[in-house]
Amino acid sequence: MTVQVTVWNEYVHEREDEHVRELYPNGIHGAIADGLESGNRTVQTATLQEPDHGLTEAVLEETDVLVWWSHCANGEVRDEIADRVVDRVHSGMGFVPVHSGKNSKPFERLMGTTCAIKYRHGGETERIWVADPGHPIADGLEESFEIPSTEMYGEPYDVPEPDRTVFISWFEGGEVFRSGLCYRRGRGRIFAFRPGHEEYPIFFQDEVRRVLSNAVDWAAPTAGATAVRGEVEPVESIESTDDP
Amino acid sequence: MTVQVTVWNEYVHEREDEHVRELYPNGIHGAIADGLESGNRTVQTATLQEPDHGLTEAVLEETDVLVWWSHCANGEVRDEIADRVVDRVHSGMGFVPVHSGKNSKPFERLMGTTCAIKYRHGGETERIWVADPGHPIADGLEESFEIPSTEMYGEPYDVPEPDRTVFISWFEGGEVFRSGLCYRRGRGRIFAFRPGHEEYPIFFQDEVRRVLSNAVDWAAPTAGATAVRGEVEPVESIESTDDP
Amino acid sequence: MTVQVTVWNEYVHEREDEHVRELYPNGIHGAIADGLESGNRTVQTATLQEPDHGLTEAVLEETDVLVWWSHCANGEVRDEIADRVVDRVHSGMGFVPVHSGKNSKPFERLMGTTCAIKYRHGGETERIWVADPGHPIADGLEESFEIPSTEMYGEPYDVPEPDRTVFISWFEGGEVFRSGLCYRRGRGRIFAFRPGHEEYPIFFQDEVRRVLSNAVDWAAPTAGATAVRGEVEPVESIESTDDP
Amino acid sequence: MTVQVTVWNEYVHEREDEHVRELYPNGIHGAIADGLESGNRTVQTATLQEPDHGLTEAVLEETDVLVWWSHCANGEVRDEIADRVVDRVHSGMGFVPVHSGKNSKPFERLMGTTCAIKYRHGGETERIWVADPGHPIADGLEESFEIPSTEMYGEPYDVPEPDRTVFISWFEGGEVFRSGLCYRRGRGRIFAFRPGHEEYPIFFQDEVRRVLSNAVDWAAPTAGATAVRGEVEPVESIESTDDP
């Protein structure tokens, strides 16, 4: 089965900040997409600047899993497009918000919480521990891996209690963070992954690419059962009817 | 400790439909409020027609638990007020949506799903089973209780997997439904309760009043810990700084 | 990937009760195994009467998913073998207890609760509703299916709150039951499925075979990450040592 | 409402190791009990060496919450007494295993997993972050607190996914750990708390005493509903009877 992936990026830092552009000459979306290349996936990209932010009905309809990177332009995503993403997740599309994508409109709407955190710039070591070694998103990892320099995110992370806590991060500056969380909303699977600050070459790191590849495969839709909603006739005969 | 309860009602059916008005001469909110009267609670009501739907910042600020009944006017609640309710839940206010309040803007935003169901009018027997007899919302109940005539709600109920499933309903017409579900969003506790169709005297029934009283006490805020969010200084000294 | 399934059966009713033997001439394990036949699975059976109940270390080591039917002989399973099954689940083996297998030693030990229910013999209609239509165990099902005659199980079911509630049953006699529940223990996936009373030809029913096939595929082990436990050296240098 | 607490301790290190005895001249149970003293609680202690380990039917019957410290003598607790504790938790008694009490027989049996971890002796700083600031067990705490010297516990912690993750620890040596986890088993509430190594004066620390006091209040039984189990008569008339 081929998984059709769309990697979405606001694509602002790479165009406005030379340091970021040098790190990601093809954009963060380009680097993420490269890391997902595989015989069992097709990967396309989309960005904020395209019509409908590149997320037309047609694009989403043929997307199995949407990977989402965003940060400074979270507020510029049109409400209508955010709702379109949310609707597709409800219908079964997988959704993998990365880093500040936690404050994207689609993720906040799917969670129903503020998704607020504490943070710190400047670069410090992060060690990501596998808390759920039996989870397929951890397939092939060692017990932990390090990101040598990164922005810090710290608890308390204002999200609903997750279905599974796959990763927990240790930060050199003294904080911790639940860095890989699984959710279901409607038929869609969601995996929120913490790393990915734009000022560091994180999306070229092997372990990060491994996690995103695993997450995309895990989040791909499955067939499921028929769901009938709306007004229905009774299955059994009703004797106690009291229709006012 | 006194729990300050606000019972909110769209208050439309009682004004427009004579049968409903006869059942609920003081409004559904009046009947719910009566059932919550107790030495350890203060109870006030609010309706859609009041300025800010009766849910001003001041009212919400002093509300510990908001009980919410709505149905045909879910779409008339202003977005700004719905967001105000959601924000207060995040800050700790309990929220108890009843019956079609499952499709109120605040509940849908807190869940992040469609909250869609199947349903049937006409009146039939519902038997509500306690699935979690150790839960405080079930305090004082028998193993089940019946609602002699009601609208049916049927699975699949499109909500996130709940923290606890307290009640499951059996319907004469052949369906089942998870009728009492617990959630946390931010600091706030949420209990979604199925019964309460406006065409039947359900809010005068002892067991329903018991459940709502238990739910209000359960959903009342607790103190909790300090939460620091936003940009912070490190707790430990950082040696690996690589600030680009 | 081939999933290696072992179907375990206490194999008592079929040998002692003529009616059951006529229904299941090859044993309940034989009927379940037949329903699981597929190009991507190998299926073997084991019974209580074999040495080590047919569950030697070697058999379990090469079993990806263990389907378990038991009832009157739950107490005759040796503690040592029950613990062996539990250990293998911790290591990743899927476990699918069916019907009274809910009171098998392995399932009770994995749950940590009594798994007690209410029940009734005599034959009545059960309608199994899909509560989680997006779950792979529901793949290919309609919104509900019926078992024409069966023993009833009723709530409250004394199990931990499940990871997912896939099915909920409606019974003609007025009860409800959570009939398909998902858990994780260690690396192993567990799916507890209610139907399967020995006095009815339930394991020849298409929908039941579909559910068990889906469950076996869902419960198959995945690779996961390395897990290091026991005493370890520090990753970071420790300055505050206060070794007494 | 008065909460009746029993603090159980294996009471071995304090008798065999002079350093521990000096820290805890009244035993670890004595120090924990002192920290729980309050107008709304009665506190008694029990130890391994007493008849029935001090946990007779009569003692457990009048215990609302059992706090449990154990380590090197986990294997010496008689199976019969461990099962008695488990049964009482199922009936509603709160259970608060502390530190290596995670490998006590009652906790392992309630979890259904190995509860295995990684660890390191020697003394290092632990910083305990509140991950769920809205939880009553965190009442009155700052966003984090430190234990200056302690044994390390590291992920992956082999327990079922918890109902709530209240605390996550940061360790100087580079590890993380979910240090405060909530569960329900039957009617009983369980809170597993990590700190408490015997070689440091941890149970005299204000924040630790605060957490244990909060946990005891949270874990106290509530009334709940009637639960009927075993064979029952139908509530509705059954027409499709097919009693073989």
Task: Reconstruct the topology from this structure.
The structure is a homotetramer of 244-residue chains.
Chain A lengths: L2 E7 L3 H4 L1 H6 L3 H10 L4 E7 L9 H5 L3 E5 L9 H13 L2 E5 L6 H7 L6 E13 L13 E11 L9 E8 L4 E10 L2 E6 L12 H14 L10 E2 L13
Parallel strand pairs in A: 1-2, 1-3, 3-4, 4-9
Antiparallel strand pairs in A: 5-6, 5-7, 7-8, 8-9
Helix pairs in contact in A: 5-6
How large is the radius of gyration of chain A? Answer: 19 Å
Instruction: Examine the secondary-structure arrangement and name the CATH architecture of the domain at 3-114 and 180-219 in chain A.
Output: 3-Layer(aba) Sandwich
Structural class computed from helices and strand pairing of chain A? alpha/beta
CATH topology name of the domain at 3-114 and 180-219 in chain A: Rossmann fold
Tell me the strand percentage band of chain A. Answer: 25-35%
* CATH homolog superfamily of the domain at 3-114 and 180-219 in chain A: Class I glutamine amidotransferase (GATase) domain
CATH class of the domain at 3-114 and 180-219 in chain A: Alpha Beta
Spans of chain A of at least 5 consecutive residues whose pLDDT stays below 50 are none
Helix fraction of chain A, binned, reads 10-25%
Please report the two chains with the greatest interface, counting residues with C-beta closer than 8 angstroms to the partner's C-beta.
A-B, 55 and 55 residues
Order of helices and strands of chain A: EHHHEHEHEHEEEEEHE
The biggest sheet of chain A, with number of strands, parallel, antiparallel or mixed sense and barrel status, is: 9 strands, mixed
Q: Count the strands of chain A?
A: 10
Oligomer: homotetramer
User: What separation lies between the terminal Cα atoms of chain A?
Assistant: 53 Å
Helical segment tally of chain A?
7
Mean pLDDT of chain A: 97
